[in-house]
């Protein structure tokens, strides 16, 4: 669905979509400050426009970069990702202040604002690029994510069945093209944003209003 919508955008924004040839490391791409200040989390939950829009509104989140991770093809473009054959997932790399928001809270928001029970799919967005995935950056994140997933499945938390979220070690992060960044805020009237992203943002506000940034 979204891929069809984006074809016209891709044609019209070829120059804008050009990106740096060199990949960035996980910490460099999200502008991670010195150790002990900010931390990074990387989540994939379908379209990165949705993930970005939700986490932008969470108190303690300082920066979000949409991009690609987990594939075998270097320097992927959005057009390549849309084929579903590069192995990458659409992800958001989140820089957050652990003094304001915990990794556990990030996990809670992650699992409650998408459907983790559908493998390689979120609604009408189908393909490996839309898989539910947590790319952990250290052993603590790996343990927390694994234990959280286990508890959710043990409690039969999801009506659609067990969570099939992939939990993998973070790899090279490739920032997406410029026009993908801050997409929902810049394009609230776009069809996909109105019918897919906006409901997720509304759901976040309903569930996590007490944790949302004050506008």
Task: Provide the fold topology.
Blueprint: H1 2-12, H2 14-17, H3 26-29, E1 39-45, H4 48-55, E2 61-69, H5 78-81, E3 89-96, H6 103-112, E4 121-122, E5 125-126, E6 132-136, H7 139-154, E7 166-169, E8 174-175, H8 183-186, H9 191-208
Parallel strand pairs: 6-7
Antiparallel strand pairs: 1-3, 1-6, 2-3, 2-8, 4-5
Structure in words:
With 215 residues, this protein is an alpha+beta fold. It contains 9 helices and 8 strands. The protein has helices spanning 2-12, 14-17, 26-29, 48-55, 78-81, 103-112, 139-154, 183-186, 191-208, and strands spanning 39-45, 61-69, 89-96, 121-122, 125-126, 132-136, 166-169, 174-175. The strands form 2 sheets. Strands 7-6-1-3-2-8 form a 6-stranded mixed beta sheet. Helix 4 packs parallel to helix 9 (191-208). The protein is globular, with a radius of gyration of 16 Å. The two termini are 31 Å apart. 36% of the residues are buried.
Question: What is shown here, in short?
Answer:
With 215 residues, the protein is an alpha+beta fold. The protein has helices spanning 2-12, 14-17, 26-29, 48-55, 78-81, 103-112, 139-154, 183-186, 191-208, and strands at residues 39-45, 61-69, 89-96, 121-122, 125-126, 132-136, 166-169, 174-175. Helix 7 links the parallel strand 6 and strand 7.
């Amino acid at each position: 669905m979204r891929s069809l919508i984006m074809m016209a955008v891709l044609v019209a924004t070829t120059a804008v979509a050009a990106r740096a040839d060199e990949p960035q490391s996980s910490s460099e791409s999200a502008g991670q400050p010195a150790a002990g200040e900010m931390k990074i989390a990387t989540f994939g939950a379908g379209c990165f426009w949705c993930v970005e829009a939700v986490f932008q509104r969470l108190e303690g989140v300082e920066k979000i970069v949409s991009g690609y991770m987990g594939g075998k093809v270097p320097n992927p473009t959005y057009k390549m990702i849309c084929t579903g054959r590069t192995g990458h997932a659409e992800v958001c790399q989140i820089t957050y202040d652990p003094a304001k928001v915990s990794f556990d809270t990030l996990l809670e928001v992650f699992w409650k604002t998408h459907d983790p029970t559908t493998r390689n799919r979120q609604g009408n967005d189908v393909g490996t690029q839309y898989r539910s995935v947590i790319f952990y950056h250290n052993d603590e994140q790996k343990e927390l994510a694994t234990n959280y997933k286990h508890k959710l499945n043990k409690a039969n938390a999801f009506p659609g069945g067990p969570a099939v979220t992939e939990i993998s070690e973070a790899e090279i992060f490739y920032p997406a093209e410029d026009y993908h960044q801050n997409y929902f805020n810049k394009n609230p009237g776009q069809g996909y944003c109105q019918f897919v992203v906006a409901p997720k943002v509304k759901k976040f506000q309903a569930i996590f209003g007490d944790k949302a940034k004050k506008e």
